[in-house]
Amino acid sequence: MMSKYPLLGMTLIELQSLVKRLGMPGFAAKQIASWLYDKKVTSIDEMTNLSLKYRELLKQNYEVGAEAPVEEMRSVDGTVKYLYPVGENHFVESVYIPDDERATLCISSQVGCKMNCKFGMTGKQGYSANLTAHQIINQIHSLPERDKLTNVVMMGMGEPLDNLEEVLKALDILTGSYGYAWSPKRITVSTVGLRKGLRRFIEESDCHLAISLHSPVTAQRAELMPAEKAFSITEMVELLKNYDFSKQRRLSFEYIVFKGLNDSQVYAKELLKLLRGLDCRMNLIRFHSIPGVALEGADMDTMTRFRDYLTTHGLFTTIRASRGEDIFADLAVCCRLRNRRKIIKVNIKIEHHEKVLFLFKHGSGSLRSCFLWIKGESYL
């Protein structure tokens, strides 16, 4: 049976083209958009201001396309990680982070990642697929806490600028008056910085921009982040200086502080030199060790000294609070199985952690491992 095409993730222009093709009145496009993005329905039958005739016509080849997460993990601090199916054999994560009056959702843009950053678990999985605008928006649409959301950050799996067409469509839906009608200031896109996409993103979107920096030294950054070889941080900074970030739109740099690697005052001075003349801020991030990577995070005293030095020398710097530490930071290793029939969850207690191994059962009855989640003792 041929699957139906999702309406969720369509821009107003695409919906206008659709209703014209189906012979529906032009105003139906805005009606459908309202049902999708304002009322957030899950079925075409709920679109009651469309005639029964047009609803039946739509249902022949289309569906809303909302798909709930298949698994969740809850931290003691309120952070929730959700696993969403994207296509037959793949999954991505989203992380819901409540914090006083703010509630942020960290969403994914790709299955896996091509960037292969030394410190990133997602890159170790390799790249599998770009997410469609439908699959990006569904992470918000199908979030159980969606009505509490105040902010969205594209800092999950994947490199947003490597999937720019679909990311820009999703941002148009989030910020357009026909869609979620959010202010762009509620959305941040995080990137390693790709030459082909950075300029276009800045010029076509008003959302906040966060650049993954992690070292001001070109050779060292290239070792940590191979993307540096194609578009250096110095070139990137020169490009950014052509744009105005002094008003509401925010430019920030992300800096993981590694023990004995980039945590000394020498690096702080180099950061100040590199970013001089840019209206920006710095976010320092704690590193949580991952298997097979010989990097350690700096201690809090070191990070505090680093922050204070930058701030007192004119670069506003914060230390990002770590959330959900009792649930593993990069959780979804994508599945490449062709015929997923049934999910079986097996809990395996190893030392101080519970490893939750998901096995997919095939028609033949054989079991194949698909992906691994690790969660802390508070979940035993």
Q: How do the strands and helices of this protein lay out in sequence?
A:
Layout: E1 5-6, H1 12-21, H2 28-38, H3 52-61, E2 62-63, E3 71-74, E4 80-85, E5 91-99, E6 102-106, E7 110-112, H4 121-124, E8 127-130, H5 133-141, E9 151-154, H6 164-175, E10 187-191, H7 195-204, E11 208-212, H8 218-224, H9 233-240, E12 251-256, H10 265-275, E13 281-285, H11 300-312, E14 317-319, E15 342-350, E16 353-361, E17 367-375
Helix pairs in contact: 1-2, 5-6
Features:
DNA polymerase, domain 1, 3 domains, TIM Barrel, 17 strands, 380 residues, alpha/beta, 11 helices
- Helical stretch count? 11
Elements, N to C (H/E) = EHHHEEEEEEHEHEHEHEHHEHEHEEEE
Describe the largest sheet: 10 strands, mixed
In CATH, what is the class of the largest domain?
Alpha Beta
User: What is the spatial order of strands in the main beta sheet?
Assistant: 3-4-5-6-9-10-11-12-13-14
Taking pLDDT < 50 over at least 5 consecutive residues as the criterion, the unreliable ranges are 328-380
Going by CATH, the architecture of the largest domain would be Alpha-Beta Barrel
Helix content: 25-40%
Radius of gyration: 22 Å
Q: Name the beta content range.
A: 15-25%
Arithmetic mean of pLDDT: 87
Number of domains: 3
Helix- and strand-based class?
alpha/beta
Could you name the CATH homologous superfamily of the largest domain? Aldolase class I
Number of strands: 17
What is the general shape? elongated
Compute the separation of the termini in Å: 41 Å
Task: Enter the CATH topology name of the largest domain.
Answer: TIM Barrel
